[in-house]
Design goal:
The chain is 26% helix and 28% strand. The chain is of the alpha+beta class. The protein is flat. The structure holds ligand LQZAQKY5 and molybdate ion (MOO).
């Protein structure tokens, strides 16, 4: 058996970063280049820069009007106007024109009365009024920008005004990026089982650029010791830093750490961070070489914690700081004492508090980063946080955007994605975020003031009525409204062509079923139908197997993980499955009255009444919407 690296030594994050930066400081040399000022945005100055010219370069008129000799205007008043003669007493000037002796003041055009002898003025002009003296803005020789200053658009303007056209700046650090792995294919190749589409290096490339560096991405290297070694050795001589992706942990073909031990010094292998544990921090020929884990979230978090500080050091910039807010976490988070954990969260403002809803925690869940508004850290010494406890969240988005987001928690339907897509188009700056925990879970979130709206479809088995009795029971009257949503058909999702010939719920015993979680409206309906038909849950193979959304059920049926599951028509269509209707149901929104008048909540309810929305529901198929957006207040 090939050798495994079983002895990752997991150092606390801060200690690992400090060790590494300390090892790099004596060897990393900062490089400089002189470039045109016009191309210098976001670059960092090497030295202080001094003005070559003054601005203005001469005494200049600040207004359109006439330049006058101020002492000839002294007598002018409302009752005794003075008439000035052109060429003798004044000349016509425009804003920016030079003012030469004997002229020493400017009178604005609107304060002049034209007469046949010249112009009449009714007030005296003070010496130097409306004249911008030489160097009023910039004096030749004065310092415009200090050293180590990041150049902004206004700086470019002022540098040019002061006669500076070229400037010496810190050279952008150049990073070489190597994806590794025999199973890695390029995005344009056709995947086979076992193939992994290469994407991490493209994410790194853009992260390097965003941090002010230059990136050179190389094609994937197969798992071969010599190839990895030769590529790294060559890159180290040509680039300022090298990033190697994957092959960093304990697999039999994880060669990176061995290669780096041969080529240079491995300062750290393994950091107490999750995701992101198998990071390698090495120095080869005085250049930083960083091995990042293959899983995308691990790779991203490793990059933020270890590559960004090195780029900042080489680029002489400060690390960008995200805004931090205190939010209350919407569910219990248990974490190990073995590492510091980064939990991606969706953040919204409900009432006067920020709420953070944790997203999928797996290292492979790249979508958790796409969906995240920020992340919270569970420190290494902490075992986790309880639901409702405050956490510090570092925001990836603007706080204002987060505050203008409709927070929806409850049952899932594809129409939520349609509304989320329409919202920022109709109302720039407003967003919809939805988390799917089932109908009852949504109502509980409303009770805890963690969401604005809860989409629900809960059948009252006694009355056959949907939704109203549940919210009446939970919230009491006068506190909550029901906004009518859509009617939709629940049914059984089966593979295309219905190979098992399933006609209804009565045929499910004997099939492999995938259920929904407790508290989901679909589960309530399924249980109700089973009871009506006299089928015991134990007769359903897979009753205990729970998926969290309609799409997750459809994916399980589509991928041959199950024969049948219950869900909505649009999910069946999206996954190209057959659909056996079971019955209609009402999917509505519960909203506490206190949120009804918020602009973003009103905007969301308006979307439910729009023709464009109905058009998109028709495309999804299976929806009715006669009463969508209607408010039922007397519950
Ligand atoms: N026995 C152990 N197994 C693993 C350990 C461990 O300590 N003991 N650590 C786990 C952890 S934690 C992580 S994180 C991963 C890291 O694995 P590697 O860095 O060695 O990466 P690979 O195994 O080569 O790939 C893993 C996974 O990453 C994705 N990947 C890889 N490269 C790319 C790319 N260029 N673009 C997109 N995605 C990529 C892919 O899904 C791979 O399957 O190891 C655990 N195992
Ligand atoms: O470091 Mo791994 O990313 O924990 O999954």
């Amino acid at each position: 058996m090939a050798k495994r690296n079983l002895y990752l030594d997991t150092k606390p994050v801060e200690e690992a970063a400090e060790l590494y930066l300390n090892a790099l400081r004596p060897v990393v040399t900062i490089q400089y280049e002189t470039i045109p000022v016009t191309e210098s945005l976001n670059r960092v100055t090497r030295h202080a820069t001094y003005a070559k010219y003054s601005s203005p370069l001469f005494n200049a008129s600040a207004m359109d009007g006439i330049a006058v000799i101020s002492e000839r205007t002294v007598a002018a008043t409302e009752v005794a106007p003075v008439t000035l003669k052109e060429k003798e007493d004044y000349i016509v000037v425009d804003t920016g024109d030079p003012i030469h002796p004997p002229y020493d003041a400017v009178i604005m055009a609107e304060d002049l009365v034209e007469t046949k002898d010249g112009v009449q003025i009714t007030a005296s002009a003070a010496p130097w009024q409306h004249v911008r003296p030489i160097g009023e803005d910039i004096v030749a020789g004065e310092m415009i920008l200090p050293s180590r200053h990041k150049i902004r658009p206004i700086d470019v303007g002022v540098l040019l005004s002061a006669g500076i056209t070229r400037i010496e700046v810190v050279k952008r650090p150049r990073a070489a990026i190597f994806p590794t792995g025999t199973e890695i294919i390029e995005p344009e190749d056709t995947p086979r089982e076992g193939s992994i589409i290469e994407s991490n290096s493209r994410m790194f490339e853009n992260m390097v650029i965003e941090a002010g560096g230059e990136a050179r991405r190389f094609p994937p290297i197969i798992d071969d010791y010599e190839q990895i070694r030769d590529n790294i050795a060559k890159a180290v001589s040509e680039y300022d830093m090298v990033i190697v992706n994957a092959g960093s942990s304990a697999g039999t073909e994880d060669y990176t750490v061995h290669v780096l031990r041969e080529l240079g010094e491995v300062i750290v292998h393994g950091v107490a961070i999750k995701p992101g544990k198998p990071v390698i921090l090495a120095v080869v020929e005085g250049k930083p070489v960083i091995g990042l884990p293959g899983y995308p979230v691990s790779a991203y978090i490793g990059f933020e914690n270890f590559v960004l500080p090195v780029l900042a050091m080489m680029g002489q910039t400060a690390l960008k700081k995200n805004e931090v807010v205190t939010a209350s976490v919407s569910k219990r988070l248990v974490s190990s004492l073995r590492h510091k954990e980064y939990v991606r969260v969706k953040v919204g403002k409900v009432g006067d508090k920020m709420v953070a809803a944790p997203l999928a925690r797996g290292a492979g869940a790249a979508m958790s980063l796409v969906r995240a508004d920020g992340f919270c850290v569970i420190e290494q010494h902490s075992e986790g946080v309880e639901a409702g406890e405050p956490v510090q969240v570092e925001l990836y988005r603007d706080k204002a955007e987060v505050e203008n987001t409709v927070v929806i928690i409850g049952s899932h339907d594809l129409i939520l994605d349609v509304a989320a897509d329409m919202m920022p188009n109709l109302h720039p700056g407003m967003f919809v975020s939805s988390t799917h925990v089932g109908s009852m879970g949504g109502l509980m979130a409303l009770k805890r003031k963690e969401a604005h709206l809860a989409p629900i479809h809960l059948l009252d088995e006694e009355t056959g009525e949907y939704n109203l009795s549940y919210i009446r029971r939970l919230f009491g009257s006068g506190k909550i409204a029901l906004i009518k949503g859509v009617g939709r058909t629940q049914g059984i999702l089966v593979k295309k062509g219905n190979p098992l010939g399933i006609k209804g719920i009565e045929d499910l015993p004997g099939c492999r079923y995938v259920n929904r979680q407790r508290g989901a409206g679909t589960r309530v309906l399924f249980d109700y139908k089973l009871k009506q038909l006299g089928i015991a849950p134990e007769q359903i193979n897979g009753y205990e197997r729970e998926a969290a959304t309609h799409m997750a059920v459809a994916a399980a049926v589509g991928s041959d993980g199950a024969d049948a599951g219950m869900g909505i028509l649009s999910a069946a269509k999206a996954m190209d499955l057959d659909f056996i209707p079971v019955g209609p149901e009402e999917y509505d929104f519960a909203v506490p009255l206190e949120y009804l008048e918020l602009p973003h909540i009103k905007a969301f309810i308006e979307i439910l009444k729009m023709d464009e929305f109905y058009k998109r529901l028709d495309e999804l198929g299976g929806y009715t919407y006669e009463r969508a957006g209607e408010r039922i207040l007397n519950i």
